[in-house]
Design goal:
17% strand, seven-stranded parallel beta sheet, 328 residues, 10 helices, alpha/beta
Amino acid sequence: MRLLVTGGAGYVGSVCAAVLLERGHDVIVVDDLSTGNADAVPAGAEFVEGDVAALAGDVLGRGGVDGVLHFAAQSLVGESVLEPAKYWQGNVVTTLALLEAMRRSGTPRLVFSSTAATYGEPERSPITEDDPTRPTNPYGATKLAIDHAITSYATAYGLAATSLRYFNVAGAYRGAGENRVVETHLIPLVLQVALGQRDKISVFGTDWPTPDGTAVRDYIHVLDLAEAHLLALDRAAAGIHSIYNLGSGAGFSVREVISACERVTGLPIAAEDAPRRAGDPAVLVASSNRAIEELGWRPAHTDLDEIVADAWTYLKDLGDRSHAARRR
């Protein structure tokens, strides 16, 4: 198939684009590089730099595109609270422009990179697709609004669409990993301590109702996530918008993540206990039962040490390349 990957210069999008190429698909990447990196676009993909909303019509208007995998988004929760206009414009308005371009060009399939933040603070764990969606920040709200828009396009225009909701993506694949100017994810933040890029990691709350008192979160390997996107693309049915959660079903605590990073790196990780953050739930874990049953998705990289080791290898290599570039 010939496929458009929006946000394909970002972390998850670039890995997914690489896997698509490995499977023999033709790939077009559109990315404005506001958060992505041009060197993350895999070799063999056609790269079009610029805004998705502005370019989608031209790219899809050429014809011959069989589907879209939509990763392009603003995705910092804290920033979304301070700058909601950026998120409603960058996420919702951009996606509406993409959906219209797909409708006009007759592009039949869409896989949308959504988030379990659409559920807000859950009443139970693991979270299922039937649980209430009550996002607590503009980021989650924009993703939920997009899900509603996709449902209406599938119903009215026959779009074959799937939304995948997940929490924390981690790990790396063939030289592609997390490389953000503003990092908010726990595993790379902990590994930055091991690399000497930060002094310590803060542990927000040590009195949660969890086995070790620290918050529990879901982690999914980026390669397993890419596989889910490919399965969703294959199984998409005209006129139907399917929604699937992707997660471990168990989760790991902050202390467990820090310990895994120490085992993998062989280095001590300085940690500092800090008060709970307002709005943080004790446990955020997604149930993947529906994806397992309906998509045939089975994550193959669920060992925490493996996930951390892949991220560590990538970050060390990134640091080595940056050091070498500075010396030249």
